[in-house]
Amino acid sequence: MPKCLLPINGRSSLDLYASAFERAGVIDEVIVVGGYRINDVRNSLPAGFRLIDNPDYATTNSLASLALALQSIPADDDIAVFNADVIYQPDLLGRFVRSPRRTAMLIDELRDHDPNEYQVRVVDGMIARLSPLIPPEESFGQDAQAFRIAPEHLPLVRDFVQQELDGGGRTTLYSGWVLTMLAKQGLLHPVYTNGQMWSEFDTAHDYQRCVELATAEEGRTPFFGSYGLDDTAPVTNADEDVVELAQLERRSFGSLARRTWDAVAHGKLPWRLQWLAELPAALRASPRRALRWMMPLATRSMTRESFRLQVHGARMMADVMDAAAEVGIRPYLMWGTLLGCIREGGFIRGDHDVDLGVADGEFERIPELTALMLAREYTLRAETDTKVSFIHPKVPLWIDLDRLVESRDHFWIPDPPGQNAFRHAYWFPRPSFETLSVRRFEGVDVFVPDGAEEILTAIYGTWWIPQQKRHFQRGPLNLMMQEQPVGSVVER
Fold first, then answer.
1. What is the DSSP letter of 340?
2. How far apart are CA 314 and CA 444, in angstroms?
3. How far is CA 61 from CA 54, 132, 171, 339, 471, in A?
4. pLDDT tens for residues 189-227?
5. Distance between CA atoms of 185 and 198, rounded to whole angstroms?
6. DSSP 37
């Protein structure tokens, strides 16, 4: 039986790919290159998949299969290439095809170093070398056996593939051989798995492991938080407004009178006036900021959470910076707060918390910082070996401090395993954090990494383009929406 038809929880790997591609929503066409028992593959092909026969499958390797697929792909298509004897957690595969990195390869940065597998070295944010000979201290991770090619690089790839096949590589070279050329040309971006499941099955033992991993994933609900395609996504405020307005118009005079009495007697404001509940605390904290942002709040172009950040965020920032100075810590802006500082010159209107990073060597003094923040009446929201979070004394607004860890000659920020046992890793080049500068932000002196733009690129991709805020679930480089559909190639 062809490996791509082996049952994994009752479904073939091709069926698993079909479900993940449908979920991702950006695939125009899927091409399967087969050869061995081609009729079995044809009879089991998922709906919409196109099959190409490689009659020389017994004497060629997968680079020849890739060449056959490239012959039928239009010149202006993005393509993604997978091996059908590899399975991926669906939202990992979907994230990869939606990554803004259009010429890229998938890297498992958390897998233990295996000298028998291809390792990847990254320099200045680009893949510089792929080889099993890369030592652990230089490796950014293991090849996770998926890559993408942008249309502008397809002619280069086609020429390279033909040159290698003509030079005798038909029987020995894998499709991933094109990555070595792209890396040498400085064109290959990394996209990281962030601890999400993937596994290859070459042997019976591998196959059993894949079945067990797929079984463990079966009961988990995919997040797809950055896709904006979830059927179960929460209703937006605008939708709530429409529903409640329609209900209000149908209510009788008596019902409206009861609602008015509730508003007066019990402080239950009608939905149109609920924003007024934010004003007393905001005016006490900063009349100028409260009045400045009152109109966006009243017109519902700003959420109540974002309003709180605009009003109270600067005071929170000053409190934590003062406490950090007392214990000898230099927290620096990270995540959305860093993005707001660099791109907007202040907090982003859609943000809802304060984000800071702390160097690994300074994180050991976090208990001292915690004691000072508690003395200022802040509440401890979370405390782990990689993060501490404090809640404002009077409003539901918090400030997060993440630990920056050094590993393999670069830095990363991990999230501890949660209910779904995922580890999220955000990788950054060392030079980005080598020096910090003091910058005035919302009236407070803060620390900003000198490599801020490189950090933001690693987190958000095209960070300089304002976009609708999304709930990022899975880490760097690969969570932005991909506007152009991707044509995908699945190889036998």
1. I
2. 7
3. 10, 19, 5, 46, 41
4. 988 887 788 999 999 999 999 998 888 877 665 544 333
5. 28
6. T
